[in-house]
Design brief:
The chain is mainly alpha-helical. It has 12 helices and no strands.
């Protein structure tokens, strides 16, 4: 197990607390104004807070590494394609399965590009420099990719909770725990790509493709009237992630995590988060 210095721990905690708190305030203002459009501002919080903390702690060099070095870099075509089509392919497979593989019944929810695609891009850019560019590398300084991704998925998921309370930011007619499961699986997928590319660009592309799939394909319960297709999507993504993390376990699960805490129970991500907090 790698040793995470006190600076890294502080940055993880400060970033997570401020991002969730700021988003909560924005959602509260949105609720009081009775204007759900105000809540869209929450999507910029992760990248903006990452920018501020990086500027304070690491200056221009840190900002360059965060916004330039992790974006403008050579990335294999394979990873770009996986980022762009991975989630949409699984979502399409879920749709086809629910339709009994009757391709003639396969259809898009909408073909309208504007303003949806602009909003989808802004969401991905506004979030990913925070989640993958800032937070994930710091978690990986201490934990392997699996544990880092689960912790990040929990933080990312609960970051959505204030928006969920006011009816925005989370698919309608979906239990928050189910949504949280998707966020954790989505985090595993995007973090797997980031692990091999160290590119926030691929994270942005994967985030864009996931939100585009939810917007244009008929898999969400608010569009289909049931959870069946979404559950199929979750099943396929779960199987894919289990296969990837098993076949690539020497890379993705490397690190001595047995010493993180003393008891077997405390190896769960919840106790790991408590361990970070208590050792700061």
């Amino acid at each position: 197990m790698k040793i995470l210095n006190s600076k890294g721990k502080r940055e993880i905690i400060i970033f997570s607390v401020i991002v969730i708190a700021l988003s909560s305030v924005i959602c509260f203002i949105s609720y009081k104004l009775d204007d759900p459009n105000v809540s869209i501002l929450t999507v910029f919080a992760p990248s903006i807070i990452a920018l501020i903390i990086t500027a304070i702690t690491n200056g221009k060099k840190g900002l360059y590494e965060l916004f330039v070095k992790q974006t403008v870099k050579k990335t294999g075509l394979k990873w770009l394609l996986i980022s762009l089509i991975g989630i949409p392919v699984l979502a399409s497979l879920a749709m086809l399965t629910s339709l009994g593989f009757d391709i003639s019944r396969f259809d898009l929810r909408t073909t309208q590009l504007l303003p949806q695609i602009v909003i989808i891009i802004l969401i991905a850019v506004g979030e990913e420099y925070g989640w993958r560019g800032f937070l994930l590398p710091r978690l990986m300084d201490k934990f392997n990719l699996l544990y880092s991704s689960i912790i990040l998925g929990l933080i990312w998921g609960f970051w959505h909770f204030p928006a969920y309370l006011i009816g925005t930011g989370v698919p309608l007619r979906m239990n928050f725990i189910v949504f949280l499961l998707w966020v954790i699986l989505g985090t595993l997928f995007i973090s797997w790509i980031y692990y091999y590319t160290k590119s926030v660009l691929t994270s942005i592309l994967a985030h864009i493709s996931a939100n585009a799939a939810f917007n244009y394909l008929l898999i969400l319960p608010e569009f289909t009237g049931s959870m069946n297709t979404f559950w199929l999507f979750i099943l396929y993504l779960s199987v894919l992630m289990m296969m990837i993390f098993y076949t690539k376990r020497k890379d993705l699960l490397k690190g001595d995590i047995n010493n993180i805490v003393s008891s077997r129970t405390s190896k769960s991500p919840f106790f790991i988060i408590l361990n970070i907090l208590s050792s700061t």
